[in-house]
């Protein structure tokens, strides 16, 4: 054993002695040994300090535990209530002190007077320490100089049953006892430190041996010479080498790198960002620290292939090594590749950005915006004027309208947008329009044909700096729609290669422009059809003051409609409807329904019966148009029909799946009347019900379609509330102004659905313009009625109509008495016309017929037809009403007497 130890000592000594201080390995060994000794020493000191801290912490913890245990022990509170607490507590505290391993346990009252102490002579004296925090219910630790010397003590409260502090308990240890524990641990710490020193020294020796092998026992001078040779080789190679530190400083640059990057002599040691001659992209790469493989960068007019790798992958210092190769000869090839890439990207963006809408002008704008500034400095688009209206273009470039202008500047002298241009045949635009091939003008100053178009403007264009032009025709399906003109001012002139790019760019836009043109034509036809089916002007009538608005949807025509129809007796019918869907089919169906409403209204049907007939009509339309191509399609339609009577001021209405109307009272209040809802038209099977409202004069009845209040951004209730707010509080506003205010409040800029809005302010016929009589069923009453009517007409200043009205009343009353039933009633109304109404309780309707020569009767209704403007029959729940209207005489025209013989001129 002793021989082995001696051999180890000799080997270790030889290993250490063999490391000459002259070698790098020896110097490193001494440095590492000194560092190990310093580290072990610091570690021993740290362990000693840590041991002292842990011991002190343990002493405080034990003091707190003992004090709390004793404070909560059974019998302590009882002992404190005895006349002599010390007699009971002193033996207990001494026994607990010895068992817990502390130096003292002191029980005191709330004033700090001791009940117990290891030294009995100190009982009854004041406690040395702070008791304030403990009186507040807290545990308090401190270091004091007490009767036993320097002590570490903890003071805790003793709480009674009510939670009040009854006394205090303090326990602790003397500091010297704590320090003695540290002294006992010190030999162990020093032994561990010595062991660590031995192990570390051995490890240092092994590292030194390995370093000796790796450096081949070279001395510093020898290594210096080796690095000198390395530098010679580094600066002689034809590849630039840079070493950049982690902080961005340039640590090394060989001669080739200095030449390629044109670095100053003082570049090494400076931050790369401070080298202002470097290209910004190169600076960004050098400071990024990322890996790069054969990236191409421009620097000093050269095209460099750059490789960059981090230096810390094998445990070296943080930084990067960069190599540079001059690849200028690849610049031309890469330039052409870049140009091809940019052109492909331009065509790709044109495919995405052109034709986003079916609007001719917007599509032309998109073509101009895509090409500027990536292909041209200025772009103008000229289209045949008819294309803007959906028509086929002309065969020449005469009459081209400039629809789009875009450029890098706004002060250019080119023709402004919206101008109608007539290109001469010598211009590139006219030649390209006629041939269908793009025209290249590399030098505008030498283009005589272009200069002849407008000498003054072309002179200003050349003075502005515009020097080159490509005029590419816009053609689709073999038809030329216009030309796209690409101008350059601040770039090189166009060449032949760019001519094909212009053709391809325009071809992508031509299809979209043609689609937009065809859509414009179809849309215009549909809108024209729809507007022809809607009322162009409202009929004259005295019962209502009407305002209306119709707005077609932006996406196409639809089936919303409205109508105002005068009825006999001064009454007026209001109708609003909506056919589901868009397009020509919806517009045509809307026209059929509106015509049907007109036809049914001539029969003077109540609203519920009229909707029943409409319902049957729509059902027949569904059946007649059913075919395999449209299987499952039905006509969906809604309608609201109302009749207003200015004499009684009543409004009877019914609706088939339509929205309820709004009613604006004369005081400005708005309500939505409870009109019974019927099923939409075409479903059948359910009856329609009516609602009768009595309207004050000046009330406004608002009828509308769902496009006014329904929107994807809000629900129906919100739209109804917006309509209420738009109508409320303006009782004196005219219907036209109300229509404008409602549309401005509810509709977006581009409504998705068409809108029909009808607002009617009610008028009442004055009582002095109405006269009525009950007629007994007695032939003798006819003469009395003729006299009464004659007197009333004289009172109204219409005596000249007396003969004709007496004749008409005689025939109508006679028929009612002879063929009708009670009650018989006569009403005379003075409105725009003179209206005569005879009602009775029978539902039998009279019919006009032509009497034979030998017939004694049958000519009464014929005489009524000859004397009146029009006449007819309407039915009511009480029977029927036969009415007749006579034209009121013009007060400014001279009176013309009626010749009774003229009435029989056509009678055989």
TrEMBL record:
Write down the membrane topology.
Multi-pass membrane protein
Gene3D superfamilies reported in the protein's UniProt record: 3.30.450.40, Histidine kinase-like ATPase, C-terminal domain, PAS domain, PPM-type phosphatase domain
Against CDD domains, the record matches this protein to:
HATPase_RsbW-like (cd16936)
Compartmental location: Cell membrane
| Domain GAF: residue ranges | 349-523
Q: Which Pfam families match?
A: GAF, HATPase_c_2, PAS_4, sCache_3_2, SpoIIE
Q: Which residues form the PPM-type phosphatase domain?
A: 544-762
Predominant localisation class: membrane
Q: Which UniProt keywords apply?
A: ATP-binding, Cell membrane, Hydrolase, Kinase, Membrane, Nucleotide-binding, Phosphoprotein, Transferase, Transmembrane, Transmembrane helix, Two-component regulatory system
Q: What PANTHER family does the database record attribute to this sequence? A: STAGE II SPORULATION PROTEIN E, STAGE II SPORULATION PROTEIN E-RELATED
Name the record gives this protein: SpoIIE family protein phosphatase
């Amino acid at each position: 054993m002793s021989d082995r130890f001696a051999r180890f000592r000799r080997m270790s000594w030889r290993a250490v002695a063999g490391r000459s201080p002259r070698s790098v390995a020896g110097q490193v060994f001494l440095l590492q040994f000194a560092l190990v000794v310093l580290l072990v020493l610091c570690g021993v000191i740290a362990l000693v300090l840590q041991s002292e801290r842990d011991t002190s912490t343990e002493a405080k913890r034990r003091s707190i535990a003992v004090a709390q245990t004793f404070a909560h022990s059974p019998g302590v509170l009882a002992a404190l209530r005895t006349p002599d607490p010390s007699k009971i507590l002193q033996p207990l505290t001494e026994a607990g002190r010895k068992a817990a391993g502390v130096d003292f346990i002191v029980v005191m009252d709330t004033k700090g007077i001791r009940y117990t102490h290891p030294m009995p002579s100190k009982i009854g004296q004041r406690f040395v320490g702070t008791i304030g925090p403990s009186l507040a219910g807290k545990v308090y630790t401190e270091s004091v100089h007490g009767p036993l010397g320097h002590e570490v003590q903890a003071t805790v409260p003793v709480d009674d049953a009510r939670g009040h502090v009854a006394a205090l308990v303090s326990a602790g240890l003397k500091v010297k006892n704590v320090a003695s524990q540290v002294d006992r641990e010190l030999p162990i710490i020093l032994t561990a430190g010595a062991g660590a020193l031995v192990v570390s020294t051995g490890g240092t020796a092994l590292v030194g041996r390995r370093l000796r092998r790796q450096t081949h026992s070279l001395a510093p001078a020898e290594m210096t010479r080796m690095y000198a040779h390395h530098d010679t080789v580094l600066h002689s190679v034809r590849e630039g080498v840079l070493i950049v530190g982690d902080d961005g400083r340039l640590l090394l640059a060989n001669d080739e790198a200095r030449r390629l990057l044109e670095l100053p002599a003082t570049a090494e040691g400076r931050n790369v960002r401070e080298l202002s001659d470097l290209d910004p992209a190169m600076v960004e790469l050098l400071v990024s620290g990322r890996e790069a493989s054969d990236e191409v960068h421009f620097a000093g007019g050269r095209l460099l292939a750059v490789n960059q790798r981090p230096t810390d992958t094998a445990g070296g210092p943080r930084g990067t090594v960069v190599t540079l190769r001059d690849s200028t000869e690849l610049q031309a090839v890469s330039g052409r590749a870049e140009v091809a890439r940019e052109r492909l990207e331009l065509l790709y963006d044109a495919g995405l950005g052109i034709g986003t809408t079916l609007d001719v002008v917007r599509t032309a704008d998109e073509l101009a915006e895509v090409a500027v500034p990536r292909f041209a400095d200025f772009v103008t688009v000229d289209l045949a004027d008819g294309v803007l209206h959906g028509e086929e273009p002309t065969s020449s470039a005469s009459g081209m309208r400039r629809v789009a202008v875009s450029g890098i500047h706004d002060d250019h002298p080119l023709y402004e947008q919206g101008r109608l241009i007539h290109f001469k045949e010598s211009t590139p635009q006219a030649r390209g329009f006629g041939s269908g091939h793009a025209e290249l003008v590399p030098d505008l100053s030498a283009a005589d044909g272009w200069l002849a178009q407008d000498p003054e403007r072309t002179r200003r264009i050349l003075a502005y700096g515009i020097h080159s032009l490509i005029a590419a025709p816009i053609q689709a399906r073999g038809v030329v729609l216009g030309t796209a003109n690409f101008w350059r001012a601040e770039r090189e002139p166009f060449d032949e290669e760019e001519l094909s790019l212009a053709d391809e760019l325009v071809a992508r836009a031509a299809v979209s422009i043609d689609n937009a043109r065809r859509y414009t034509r179809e849309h215009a036809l549909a809108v024209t059809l729809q507007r022809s089916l809607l009322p162009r002007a409202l009929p004259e009538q005295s019962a209502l003051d009407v305002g209306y608005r119709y707005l077609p949807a932006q996406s196409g025509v639809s089936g919303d409609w409205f109508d105002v129809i005068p009825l006999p007796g001064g009454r007026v019918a209001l109708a609003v409807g909506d056919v589901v869907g868009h397009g020509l089919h919806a517009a045509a169906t809307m026209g059929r329904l509106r015509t049907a409403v007109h036809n049914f209204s001539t029969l003077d049907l109540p609203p519920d019966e009229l909707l029943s007939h409409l319902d049957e009509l729509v059902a027949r339309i569904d059946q007649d148009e059913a075919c395999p191509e449209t299987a499952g399609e039905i006509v969906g339609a809604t309608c609201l029909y109302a009749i207003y009577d200015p004499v009684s001021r009543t409004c009877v209405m019914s609706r088939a799946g339509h929205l309820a109307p709004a009613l604006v009272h004369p005081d400005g209040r708005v309500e939505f009347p409870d009109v019974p809802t019927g099923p939409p038209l075409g479903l059948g099977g359910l009856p329609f019900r009516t609602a009768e409202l009595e309207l004050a004069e000046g009330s406004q009845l608002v009828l509308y379609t769902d496009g006014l209040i329904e929107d994807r951004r809000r629900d129906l209730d919100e739209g109804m509330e917006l309509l209420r707010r738009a109508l409320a509080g303006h009782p004196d506003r005219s219907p036209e102004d109300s229509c404008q205010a409602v549309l401005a409040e509810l509709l977006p800029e581009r409504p998705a659905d068409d809108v029909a809005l009808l607002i009617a302010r009610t008028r009442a016929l004055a009582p002095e313009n109405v006269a009525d009589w009950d007629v007994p069923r007695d032939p003798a009453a006819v003469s009395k009625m003729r006299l009464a009517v004659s007197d009333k007409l004289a009172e109204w200043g219409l005596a000249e109509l007396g003969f004709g009205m007496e004749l008409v009343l005689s025939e109508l009353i006679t028929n009612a008495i002879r063929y009708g039933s009670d009650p018989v009633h006569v009403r005379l109304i003075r409105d725009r016309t003179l209206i005569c109404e005879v009602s009775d309780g029978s539902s039998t309707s009279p019919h006009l017929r032509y009497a034979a020569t030998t017939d004694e009767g049958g000519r009464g209704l014929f005489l009524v037809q000859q004397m009146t403007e029009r006449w007819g029959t309407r039915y009511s729940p009480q029977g029927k009403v036969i009415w007749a209207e006579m034209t009121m005489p013009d007060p400014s025209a001279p009176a013309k007497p009626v010749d009774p013989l003229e009435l029989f001129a056509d009678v055989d």
